[in-house]
Amino acid sequence: MPGDCPNARTSSSNDSSPGARLRRRSITVPAVLLGFLLFSALLLPALVVGGLIDVTGRRRWSSVRVAIYAVWWAGLESVGVLAAGLLWVVYAPFGRLRHEVSLRAHSGLQRWWSTNLVRGARVVLGLEYYIEDNKAFEREGPFVVLARHGSQGDALLIAAILASSRVRPRFVVKRQLLWDPCLDLVGHRIPNYFVDRDSANNQKELENIGLLAADMEADEALVIFPEGTRFSAAKRDRAIDVLSRTAPERAASASRLRHVLPIRTAGLLSVLGAAPATDLVFLNHVGVADFKNLGDLWRNVPFPAPLRFSATRVQRAEVPDGRNSGALVSWLDARWEDFDAWVEASSVTAV
Question: Quick check: is 336 in a domain?
Fold first, then answer.
């Protein structure tokens, strides 16, 4: 795969250099292309063996579904990688990779990839989801999405949701996702930031996150997961312990949370400071527990209940001025308690 043109902004402080990208892609691109061929060749025997497992275990074709989706996923990844290569050939000569027409073409590829991954999950894995009120995405942007981080597939589902409203997302996500070659290739050509959560230079990460929010257009949204990682009770307890020592004024609010983690304010404040006029959309969801591995997915397919999303848009005039960071953080903590209460009420309703 030819190398990308230099970025106007940094997509990752440690993983965006030409050498880092070449080393990573020399592994991931051949792996996904060969993986598709291998998965396709093994599909028939996998269906036979998986079908026997499902019948004898009285399962609802979980093994068969997962095998089919693996081929679907590898096929979409392969097409995405090849399409990214074609877009490079079209736009990279004469430095056009960063022109508006190229950005929109790459956003279209991201939209195609994410919506088809979700479409396949709906057909094959039984995934269903709905949004209680989609009006939050109907008004003109740009806006900032503060999303709950409950499972591995959150970013993918949010990309599909925004795509249905013709909104182009900019994501702040963990750098480990760069090992997905489609996210790596396309994510370096359209505005995204792959954050290093363990970086020794936190200030550099915050500056880059802020740059991502600085120049959004009317049809764009920046998506950030303020919790910083997926929820667990142990992580929540550790976060409360840290806040009791570093920000004791926030500890009482954090201790009332039962289903979400306290907000990590540094990255979010950087975003809000760089985009002082944007509305905020709080995007919450319930319905599917986190899947840590393939076994978790296999045990839960087909999904027993639909994912339920709630989107609440807050006009920026209703948000405390960012120059008073204490008032803003207190306001965000209160909204996050509302977030937690909605998860509690919605989980009870779902049961």
Answer: yes
Host domain of residue 221:
18-350
Q: Which stretch of DSSP H or E encloses residue 222? A: strand 220-224
**pTM summary value:** 0.90
CA–CA gap between residue 245 and residue 251 (Å, rounded)? 9
Q: Is residue 5 part of a domain?
A: no
* Residue 147 φ/ψ, nearest 5 degrees: -110, 140
Query: Average of pLDDT values for 71-99?
Result: 94
Read off the CATH number of the domain in which 317 is found.
Answer: 3.40.1130
Burial (CB < 10 A; 0-12, 13-18, 19+), residue 285, is buried
Q: Determine, yes or no, domain membership for 81.
A: yes
How big is the chain, counted in residues? 351
Total domains in the chain come to 1
| pLDDT for 351 | 43
DSSP 251: H
Phi and psi at residue 135, to the nearest 5°: -65, -20
